Every structure is written in structure tokens, then in C-alpha cells.
Amino acid sequence: MNALASPEVGKFVDEHFVAAFQKVGTFVVNNGQKQGGNVATYFCAPDGRVLHVVAGPVDASTFLREAQWVVRSAEKAIDESQKTGKQFKVLMREYHAAKLREESGLSVEPVTFDYVPPDDSSALTYRDPTGRPLAPVLPPPPVEGPDVTLGAREFDARQANVAKAPGAAMVLDKAGRRCGVLGNQGRADMLMAAHAMQPIEKVYGSVFEGILGEKVSTQPVQVITPFSWRPEGKRGTLLNSKSPR
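RESULT FIELD:
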């Protein structure tokens, strides 16, 4: 699902963002086919603080909807915060909590203070295969439970829709009770209700590993050569992306 191949998505992205990419995991390319890996999209302020996240590959209509949401939300937050940074951050977290409630029927309390991660020696740190610390594990805000303003029928309808989403799984409320289902995007919105406007280098590990279940890695891409007449091709040898061709 290459959303960026859509002309409508491309036009909107070109108008509102500067696009870039960074590899944070590894995967295998076998006979030209990618095996494994994942993708996340981060909408950031110019200084690299994260406004919004799209967790996982999505189709063009979903990507465009999320991109339009973050542009509208950022513009609204600028107006309502009177351009003060602290209030802007609080508003973006409140908007994510409201988005989560609107789409899933589950309620979280937005976190208005910034989480201070432990030092790199802590177990609450994502690491590469060599053990080098890469990013902190960011705790999401606790789920309060179903939105009490919703009737049972409306809550069930929202949950039925979420249950079809990629990565849909049961979540627990702050008392440890099963309270509903969230997909990858719902979990990303929940994370942003506590950590919107944190630097991307602090956020990406909790998205890529914590939500998408992938392993953050600095290892190069592995390529199995498709050229059977080469000696390594006969053995199916793995070549990394830095190997000479």
C-alpha cells in the first residue's frame, strides 16, 4: 500500500511538508522481493518534535485523512495557544486524546508534563543488536475505560470498527481490566496523548518496537543475490547492502 504514489496524497504532502526518510530496522531482499520490515510516518515540527504518527503502512485515503487531521490540528493549536509553546504542546496531546475517543470510544487522560526517561543503563531502553542504547521506552497514558458519554450501542459500533484495524488487540484499563480493542493507529494516538511534541529520536523506538513489534536495528539490509550463476548465488549467500556488486 504505497500511499505516497497517490497524486492527491503527493500534492498535499508537497504543499504542507518536507519529506525525508530514515531506515531504523533491517529486512531481507530475496529475488527483488522485500521480506520483513515495516514503516511509520512522523509528522514533525521544523525542529523535529513529533506532531503526529501514522503507525504502519496504510492506503492513500487513510494517509491523506491523517495528514489533513494533523494540519488542521496544528493550525487550531497555534490559534488557541496564542503561539505559546507549552500550551501548544498540551493542546496537541488533548487533540490526540479526543481523536482516540472519537474513533475508538476509549478514554485516556492527556499528559501535560514531559516524561523524563531513565539513563541509558536502564532496562527501559530500546537497544540495537549490539546492546547500544537507541531510544527510551515511552509509557502511554493509562486507559480510563470507555467514554462514559457514549451509549453501549455507539461504543460497540466504534469498537467493531477498530477491531478491523491492523494490529487490533485487547487493551487494559488502569485497573488492569479488559476494556476494549485498539489497532496500531489507536495505540499511536494514545502514545501521542502523552508524548506529542517530544523529539523524534525519543519517540521512534516506542512506535517501531512498542507498537509495530519490529526490532530497531542499525544493521544494513540483507540481500540474497538473484544471480544464480554467481558462486554465492548457488549457495543462497546473504549479501548486505554495503557488499560490492
